[in-house]
């Protein structure tokens, strides 16, 4: 081996030299030859060195060969022994090899088992978690299932990601998540449907709780007031505090009995589907989708809840169901707001409430306008108050609802006015329009307890006696107070001051007096069957009702504790109301009296061509005068001016009617006998006027009603035409009230009668002169009339 290395080294040197020689020979002539010479010299030197070395080691080499020869025999023996030993060892090792292979095989199996165990120990937690996931899915514990999925993905799957079953599991997880989303969304839909169905029950429960709290507060306030004052009496009428207190106590007792049955919103609704769905979508990172879906669906439900039934205004149950559904809706939203984070926000609920409030107000305005029953309107008001108080307790602003109540109050007042209009009509229909008779002290006290009547003269009279007013007066007074009570019911629970309540009561009472009662009185007065006696009694009734207005003001004052001397206190307009009614009744008396006179005058049956009068007044006129005397006896209970005006109006109308009878265009002829008969009737009228049928006239004032007729008849009876024509236009003329046109009309009728019937037969000798005289007077009167026309 050493030799071999030396040879290699020599070859390497020779090759190196060849290379060097190539590089050297490139640029020198004879360089190769020189190099070869030097190489030969070098070789010789090496040979000498080799020879020396061989000589130096020759003895050692000889010694080594000698030793080898000596060992040769032993080596052969050893070879034989080794061969034999190897054979025997091989024979002996065959069994070992077999056992060794078995051991190797077992070791491999053991190693594989260990590997499998390790891998299984690594996979078992994954499989256990996946099994747990399946169990959670089957038991609908979806939120826990999602948490398990997160653990599988983040912790367990990375350990076994190289296995196929892990890949299958990984591929299955998104499907499971979608299944969970669908199932939870289905649960949410079921929940939304459930709360839609139960919203009225939820709202009813919440409103009952709010009403109970409010009733208890009002009861405490009443108890505090009772400590500082007693019940107030007004004209034997008691302010109904005891009645209110009894109602409050009864209400509290009922609510205490049912208190155990009152449920909360959590008792009525299972909110777990919302919580689960919210948590699930939060874990899935899709919370925004869930929030948007929930809000969208709830807005749809809000629109459905806010849509009223078409016949809601017909019953209070319709309004109650409408309010309870809305309350239930917002109670649920308030609960969701406080128990979840971010599902709904205060801004969202406020926006939803403002939208709902506008719709509610519009609906109530529309439907309340159809309500004609004041009890239904009052129930509506109470429902609105409870509705507002309930939602206010949950933090929703309700000022606009209380503003709406003022509009509902106007509607309530209108329905009350319509109802009381019917009440007043019934009272007027049932009245006999005659003074109230009383036979003993008990009946007297009953009337006094109903109506504040004070008359010392009547008190001094012995029984039996009569109140001047009829039965309708105390009934009207009682009903006005009942109206005040009804108005007061609406003012309760409106969170208004006593001053505002006092103003409301007075304004509504004024409407009752000035519109309803006044209208009923006017309609009553104008009814055809109401006669003069009834009209007289109506005037007397209105006088006493007018006097009772101050007691009504005291009644309101004691209810509200607001003094009438307060600057802003509204006064009752009863005085003007009853004055207007009285004036209308007076006018109707004048009209009906004139109509009655016309009826009598229509019975007149004059023979306008009679030659001689009957010597006595006409029968129709005597009947008329007797009727007027009896009527004016009834007028003694009227105020003096009314009776005097009625009497003067009747006389003037009678005078006008008689004058029109003479001047009727259909009447073509009048004899002197007829004029004389007519004169007898006018004399009876003058006698009636002078008999003072109504006291209070001064001198012959009433007789002046017939002055036109008297002067006209005197002119024809005396036939004093020269005086009339000479003094016409003079202030002191005897016939100052005779109109030339009137005289001409009557004279022409008499002239025609003279021509046809020879009315002046007793003056036959002077017939021609008389006829000329009439014609002359007619011409002068025509000239006078024409002159007056031209002057005009």
From TrEMBL:
Residues 38-207 form the Exocyst complex component EXOC6/Sec15 N-terminal domain. InterPro entries: EXOC6/Sec15 (IPR007225), EXOC6/Sec15_C (IPR046361), EXOC6/Sec15_C_dom1 (IPR042045), EXOC6_Sec15_N (IPR048359), EXOC6PINT-1/Sec15/Tip20_C_dom2 (IPR042044). Gene3D superfamilies: Dsl1p vesicle tethering complex, Tip20p subunit, domain D, Exocyst complex subunit Sec15 C-terminal domain, N-terminal subdomain. Keywords: Exocytosis, Transport. GO terms for biological process: Golgi to plasma membrane transport; intracellular protein transport; vesicle tethering involved in exocytosis. Residues 401-749 form the Exocyst complex subunit EXOC6/Sec15 C-terminal domain. One of its GO terms (cellular component) is exocyst. Component of the exocyst complex involved in the docking of exocytic vesicles with fusion sites on the plasma membrane. Belongs to the SEC15 family. PANTHER family: EXOCYST COMPLEX COMPONENT 6, SEC15. This is Exocyst complex component. It comes from Colobus angolensis palliatus (Peters' Angolan colobus).
């Amino acid at each position: 081996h050493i030799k071999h290395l030396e040879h290699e080294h020599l070859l390497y040197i020779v090759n190196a030299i060849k290379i060097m020689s190539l590089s050297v020979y490139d640029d020198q002539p004879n360089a190769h030859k020189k190099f070869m010479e030097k190489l030969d010299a070098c070789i010789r030197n090496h040979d000498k060195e080799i020879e020396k070395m061989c000589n130096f080691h020759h003895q050692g080499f000889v010694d080594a060969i000698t030793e080898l020869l000596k060992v040769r025999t032993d080596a052969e023996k050893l070879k034989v022994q080794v061969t034999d030993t190897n054979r025997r060892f091989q024979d002996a090792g065959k069994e070992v090899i077999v056992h060794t292979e078995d051991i190797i095989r077992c070791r491999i199996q053991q190693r594989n088992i260990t590997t499998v165990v390790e891998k299984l120990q690594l996979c078992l937690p994954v499989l256990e978690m996946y099994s747990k996931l399946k169990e959670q899915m089957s038991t609908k514990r979806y939120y826990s299932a999602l948490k398990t999925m997160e653990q599988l993905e983040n912790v367990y799957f990375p350990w076994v990601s190289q296995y196929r079953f892990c890949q299958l599991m990984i591929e299955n997880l998104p499907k499971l998540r979608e299944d969970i989303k669908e199932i939870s969304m289905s649960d949410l839909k079921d929940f939304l449907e459930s709360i839609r169905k139960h919203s009225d029950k939820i709202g009813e429960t919440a409103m009952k709780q709010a009403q109970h709290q409010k009733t208890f507060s009002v009861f405490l306030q009443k108890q505090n007031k009772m400590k500082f004052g007693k019940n107030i009496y007004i004209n034997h009428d008691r302010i109904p505090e005891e009645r209110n207190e009894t109602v409050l106590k009864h209400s509290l007792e009922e609510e205490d009995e049912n208190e155990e049955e009152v449920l909360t919103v959590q008792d009525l609704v299972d909110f777990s589907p919302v919580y689960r769905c919210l948590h699930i979508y939060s874990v899935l990172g899709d919370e925004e989708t869930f929030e948007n879906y929930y809000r969208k669906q709830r807005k749809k439900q809000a629109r459905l809840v806010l849509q009223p039934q078409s016949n809601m205004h017909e019953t209070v149950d319709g309004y109650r169901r409408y309010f309870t559904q809305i309350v239930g809706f917002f109670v649920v939203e308030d609960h969701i707001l406080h128990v979840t984070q971010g599902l709904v926000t205060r801004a969202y609920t406020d926006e939803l409430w403002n939208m709902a409030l506008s719709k509610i107000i519009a609906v109530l305005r529309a439907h309340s306008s159809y309500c004609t029953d004041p009890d239904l309107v009052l129930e509506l008001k109470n429902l609105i108050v409870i509705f507002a108080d309930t939602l206010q307790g949950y933090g929703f602003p309700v000022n606009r609802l209380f503003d709406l109540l003022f509009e509902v109050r106007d509607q309530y007042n209108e329905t009350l006015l319509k109802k009381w209009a019917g009440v007043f009509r019934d009272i007027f229909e049932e009245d006999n329009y005659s003074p109230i008779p009383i036979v003993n002290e008990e009946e007297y006290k009953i009337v006094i307890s109903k109506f504040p009547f004070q008359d010392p003269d009547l008190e001094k009279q012995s029984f039996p006696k009569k109140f001047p007013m009829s039965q309708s007066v105390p009934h009207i007074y009682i009903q006005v107070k009942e109206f005040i009570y009804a108005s007061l019911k609406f003012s309760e629970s409106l969170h208004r001051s006593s001053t505002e309540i006092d103003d409301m009561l007075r304004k509504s009472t004024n409407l009752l007096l000035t519109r309803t009662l006044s209208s009923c009185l006017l309609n009553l007065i104008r009814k055809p069957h109401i006669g003069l006696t009834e009209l007289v009694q109506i005037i007397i009734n209105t006088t006493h009702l007018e006097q009772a207005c101050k007691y009504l003001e005291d009644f309101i004052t004691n209810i509200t504790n607001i003094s009438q001397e307060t600057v802003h206190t509204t006064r009752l307009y009863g005085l003007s109301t009853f004055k207007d009614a009285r004036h209308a009744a007076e006018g109707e008396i004048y009209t009906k009296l004139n109509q009655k006179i016309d009826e009598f005058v229509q019975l007149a049956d004059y023979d306008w061509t009679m030659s001689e009068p009957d010597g006595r007044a006409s029968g129709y006129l005597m009947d008329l005068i007797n009727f007027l005397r009896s009527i004016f006896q009834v007028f003694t209970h009227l105020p003096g001016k009314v009776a005097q005006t009625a009497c003067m109006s009747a006389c003037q109308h009678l005078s006008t009617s008689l004058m029109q009878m003479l001047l009727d265009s259909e009447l073509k002829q009048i004899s002197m006998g007829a004029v004389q008969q007519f004169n007898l009737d006018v004399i009876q009228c003058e006698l009636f006027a002078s008999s003072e049928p109504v006291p209070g006239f001064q001198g012959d004032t009433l007789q002046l009603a017939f002055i036109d007729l008297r002067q006209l008849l005197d002119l024809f009876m005396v036939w004093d035409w020269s005086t009339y024509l000479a003094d016409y236009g003079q202030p002191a003329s005897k016939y100052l009230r005779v109109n030339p046109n009137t005289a001409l009309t009557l004279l022409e009728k008499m002239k025609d009668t003279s021509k046809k019937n020879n009315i002046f037969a007793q003056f036959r000798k002077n017939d021609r002169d008389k006829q000329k005289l009439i014609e002359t007077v007619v011409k002068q009167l025509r000239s006078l009339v024409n002159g007056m026309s031209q002057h005009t």
